[in-house]
Amino acid sequence: MSLELVLQYLVAGLTYGTIYAVVGVGFNIIYNTTGIINFAQGEFVMLGGMTAVTLHAFLPLPLAIAGAVLVTMGVGALIEVTFIRWLWKPSVLRMIVITIGISILVREAALHLWGEQVRALPYFTGDEVTSLDLGGVRFSPQVLWSLGVCLFIVVALWAFFQRTRVGRQMRACAANRDAAILCGIPTRNLVTLSFVLSAGIGALAGAVVSPITYTHYGIGSGLAIKGFTVAVLGGLGNSFAAVAAGFLVGILESFSVWLLPAAYTDAVSVTVFLAILFFRPSGLFGSREIARLKAY
Amino acid sequence: MKKTPILALLAAGGAALAASPALAADEPIKVGALLSVTGPASFLGAPEARTLEMLVEELNAKGGVAGRKIQLLLKDTGGSPEKALSFAKQLVDEEQVFAIIGPSTSGETMAVKPIAEESGTLLLSCAAAEAIVNPVAKWVFKTPQKDSHAVVRIFQQMKKMGVTRIGVLSSNTGFGKAGKDQIAKIAPEHGITIVVDEVYDKAATDLTAEVTKLKAAGVQAVLNWSIEPAQAIVIKNIRQIGLDVPIFQSHGFGNLQYVKAAGAAAEGVIFPAGRILVADKLPDKHPQKAVLLAYKRAYESRYKEDVSTFGGHAWDAFHLLVNAIRAGGADRAKARDALEATQGFVGTAGLFTMSPADHNGLGLDAFEMLVVKGGGFAVLSN
Questions:
Q1: CATH number of the domain within which A90 lies
Q2: Which fold has domain B25-145+290-361?
Q3: Which class does domain B148-273 fall in?
Q4: Helix, strand, coil % (nearest 5) of chain A?
Q5: pLDDT, tens digit, for every residue of B271-289?
Q6: Is B349 on the interface with A (CB under 8 A)?
Q7: Chain A within 8 Å of B375 (Cβ-Cβ)?
């Protein structure tokens, strides 16, 4: 296999990896603040793409995407206020069932609103056939856009959690919720904020990859499972590990096509995931001591 | 005093008995439809469903067939063979439908075939795999052209273009697998070598990795065999990776939505299809032209979207069924015999001539080789 071929597969892997990474990060934000695994995460990606396409009919592209992100953030807040806020110390299983139910609700609502058709935003630069040439490796400029957006999300989140007051409050919430309440941190609002943030980054990622992968009402559930796999693989609770794990899974899937029929890509990523969990249950980057202290 | 209630009861009972034979004659003929309106095969099932609804309304407005109206029981299978199977059981056991139109995909049809055979219910499938009618099953018919014929037409074209080494991509559905088998079987007869043969998942959203493999093998043309949106995604990936070879698609490409989804990448794609897609470009004397234009106008003005070959398959199935009922009456065995005896029926996919050995009725000439030009379909000229 020549170097050019390796790089070509790598680029394909990074493309898949972006979306997995962002969904994984979304899982982690909510999990960190609330201990909930939100299986409706994939629906935020779907809503971002679909809303952006609808808004693009009468708004220029950047505004359409911004609008889609805002609308999805609103949906995220609505979901939290309507379903999650009322729960008093829910068990893990109950939360998982509730969020899966929410994802089904959102998916069916999307089917009613937009129908079964497949939609896509236009490519941000160029069109369906433009491709850049980097040392013999050819790929669409949209790949650079999605990598750029992913990087932007990671950096912005890092700055938010490290440097802003609200971000530090959310980290306090994640570290010890009761202590945070005692310190006067408004934990209930921060839970809503975590949903809003997750929805926003999911929507942004959904909009930027929709020219490549197309969006339709049903893409959310598969993505949620992949994103959850990635989040656990990196170590649940560690956002940056989720990004690394996302790209790792994407690259593995891409290279697996060289050896195995392409229909096995999902099987490959799940097998690797199971293998790694067997040896490191706390995930690739998770710390064993911290994992033991967590609720599950 | 005690006698009058009994007399009244008897009178009422007598009146009811007298009324029921008339009711039975006016009861509508139940026709079930198993179509994948949502899901990966929605580009097939949605136009089929819309076409059937339109045709049933039209027919009922004219008084129905054999003095009875048609009641359409439409079930959305989502492209899933399991759902198709359970809906089929429901239609046959609970509703006792006269006939079933559909399913939309080959995988679903193969799952439903045994139910139709066991219960003696006519099944007019809108799916393409040859395995549906070969070996011939008494109650099972299909309206799309044979995939083996599509493959032969494609190879004939490739030979004309001097292509000998190709890469084949197919999806892991019944249609994709059937096509892959036919391609592998027929390729040697036309001097074509298959250098790369990849199967991808039906829900695949990016095929750059598979296409990379094709580029590395240095193929002279790519043949893709699937019905999902992946059809449009793969041609984008091929052009983006800089592989500038002719792209061939199966007759599953016959919906303009795919061309729209692929945008500029779809230019120059070659595929075999029914003539519905180029109806207005046919010579006026062509036997299919009037039928095609009528359907096209009715569908496009009602639903504001372009016709596809798939809606046409449902059109053919419905009209073949109605003609069979007209000829044989609303009796299952007689209608089946009438359907099997169809000669020269002008449909959207071609001219149908069925026989006990041929439950499809279309030949090699049912296909026209089309090319995508300027965002629309045109007849390929060599």
A1: 1.10.3470
A2: Rossmann fold (3.40.50)
A3: alpha beta
A4: 75, 5, 20
A5: 999 898 888 888 888 899 9
A6: no
A7: no
